Amino acid sequence: MKNTNSTGNGSKSNHSSKKSSSNGTAENGNSTSMESSQLMKLFEDELKDIYWAEKALIKAIPKMIKNATSEELIDALENHLTETKEQVSRLEQVFESIGKKPVSKKCEAMAGLIKEAGEIMDECEEGAMCDAGIISAAQKVEHYEIATYGTLRQFAQTLGLWESVKLLESTLDEEKAADEKLTEVAMSTVNIGASQEEEVAGEE
Fold first, then answer.
1. 26 half-sphere exposure, CB direction, 13 A CA radius
2. How many separate domains does the chain show?
3. DSSP track, 58-84
4. Of 90, 64, 69, whose CA–CA distance to 79 is shortest?
5. Is 4 inside a domain boundary?
6. Global confidence as pTM
7. Structural domain of residue 56, as residue ranges?
8. For 53-88, what is each residue's pLDDT tens digit?
9. Which of 25, 39, 109, 138 is least crowded, fewest Cβ atoms below 10 Å from its Cβ?
10. How far apart, in whole angstroms, are the C-alpha atoms of residue 183 and residue 162?
11. Alpha carbon of 185 to those of 53, 81, 126, 172: distances in Å?
12. Residue 3 domain flag
């Protein structure tokens, strides 16, 4: 009798252990679901942020073009303005792919970068020096966008949003190419011209 009771208690203990294990699995599942939900919210917030930023750039880039004098720089900015309009459309496709309406939220970082670009153009004299300032401001913008789109792509990969990954990767590639083009323009003509202007000003 004693052994039978012992066995019965043992069985009960095993059953309890299984129940506990089952509950643990459920809790882990809820935790994963919660983390996924939080990441999705962050993904959506970042989308709203960069959506505002790209739309703001559509208004800001023409001012850069107007103040630039280097033909190479003007061409680079005009090409990127066209790309930026396409990038806005691409972001709207990302929103659509996750079943959300495209909504923008003011991006304080981009607002600051655009404001800084405006101040540079207002303060510098027309010519190579101003072109160098425009490139500097534009590359700060590109670096912010590269960081943002890289993060968004990684979020999308983690969430398994493969259509979004493809769309975001296309824009990320464009931003990197635009940054490289600005570097080429700076190194080939603009920076040299700006340094020569400085030398002339120093001699005077």
1. 6
2. 1
3. HHHHHHHHHH---HHHHHHHHHHHHHH
4. 64
5. no
6. 0.78
7. 39-203
8. 999 999 999 999 999 999 999 999 999 999 999 999
9. 25
10. 32
11. 24, 16, 17, 20
12. no
- The Cα–Cα gap between 149 and 173 comes to 9
Structure tokens at 190: 């603009």
Rounded CA separation 31/184 (Å): 48
Residues with Cβ within 8 Å of residue 125, at least 6 apart in sequence: none
CA distance 19 to 180: 59
159-184: per-residue pLDDT in tens?
999 999 999 999 999 999 999 999 99
pLDDT at site 193: 53
Distance CA(47)–CA(65), nearest Å, equals 27
Residue 143: CA count within 13 A, CB half-sphere:
9
Helix/strand/coil for 127: coil
> Is the residue at 11 inside a domain?
no
Phi, psi of 127 (to 5 degrees): 130, -160
Q: In sequence order, which residues have a C-beta less than 8 Å from that of residue 73 and are 6 or more positions away?
A: 131, 134, 135, 182, 185, 190
